[in-house]
Design goal:
By secondary structure, the protein is α/β, with parallel strands linked by helices. It is 44% helix and 17% strand. The chain is built from 13 helices and 14 strands.
Length: 370
Amino acid sequence: MTASSRRPTVCLVGTFPPPVHGMAQVNELMRQRVALSTPSVVVFNTAAPALDRRLRMRVQRIGRAFAALLSFSFHRTSGRLAAHVYIGVSGGWGQLLDCCFAAIARILRRRVWVHHHSFAYVDRKSRLTALLIELLGKGATHIVLCEKMASRLSLAYKLTAPVLVLSNAAFLASSVQKASRASSRPIRVGYLSNITVAKGIDLYANVVQAFEKSTEIEFIIAGPIAEPEARQYLDTATSAENVQYVGPIYGDKKLEFLAALDVLLFPSKYANEAEPLVVLEAMSHGIAVVSTDRGCLDCLAGYGGNVAVNESDFVQTAIDQLQRWLADETLLAEAKSASAAGFTKLAEANREALDSLIADMVTTRSLKNA
C-alpha cells in the first residue's frame, strides 16, 4: 500500500484538559473531530497538571512538555514517521516549545496546521512568534478565529503562508440551546470563568455594588478561584444578599447554570483573550452578553447584537445596560433573541470551513509536495 492511498496519522500538539481552559477545550474539540474521520490520532499533551502557577507545577509542566517533544521526535506509525501535524499555539513562553515541534516537523517535511488562540502576540509583535512563523515556513496553514485576527496577524508578521479563518463557533454548531427562562424577573446576571483579576472579577464586583440592594436582579458567579488576589474581589461581591457563588462547574451543571441566566458579563482584561468559548456558549443559550472588546469579542458582539466596550468603560456601560433592561423587559428579550440568532449565523457560516479543514488534515499527500 502506497503512502498516498492511506489515511495519515495526525499528531495533535498542545495543551489538553485537564485542567480546563479555553485553548485546551478547543484542542480537545479538534481531537474529537479529527478522530471521527481517522482512527490514527496521536496526542502530545504539553499541559501542566493544574492551573496552579506555583513553581512545582511549572516544573511539572516543563517535564511533561519535554517528554511530549521527545516522544514526538521519535514517533513512528506503520513503519514511517507520521505525516501530519496540528499545533495549538501557546500565548507566551510556551511558544519556545512550539518552535521545537515546528522545527522537527519542518525538518521531516510534514504538513502542519497551527491554530492561534491568543491576541497577546497579535496586539503586540513578538520576536518569539516571528521565529515560530519563520520555522513553520510557507507550507504551514495558519488557523485564526476571526477576520480581525487574520488581518492583524498577517500584517504584523508579513505572512505569506495560507490563513484560514475559523470561528470556535464551528465546534459548537450542534449545541444550540433553546432559552429555558420564560420570564426575566429577576434578571439573572452571570460570571463564568477562571476567577482572576485578569478575567475581570474586580470589574464584575464593581457592577454588583451598583445593584447590591436591588430585588429585581440576581448575580451568580461560577468558576474556580485561580489566584489568591482574586479572593478579595469575590468576597466583596458575595457580601451582597443578591449574589451567589456556586464554585467550579462542568458538564451538565455548566449547562444548567447557563440555562438559568439572562445576561453574561465577561469583563476580561486577559492579554491572551481571543474568542472565548464561554461567550459563544452563552450566545447559543440565548443569553445577552456585555463584554470587553479584547480579541474577537467585538466581532462576536456584531453577530449577536451584544455589547463589547473598552475595559475602562466596562463597569459604567454594564450598569447602564442593566438599568435599561430593568426598565424595559422587552429590550432584554430582544437582546437575548439577537444573541441566539447571531450564534446560529456564525456557527453555520463556519461549519463548512471546519469540515473542509478536517478533510484536508486526514488526506494523505505525497511528502515531496508537503
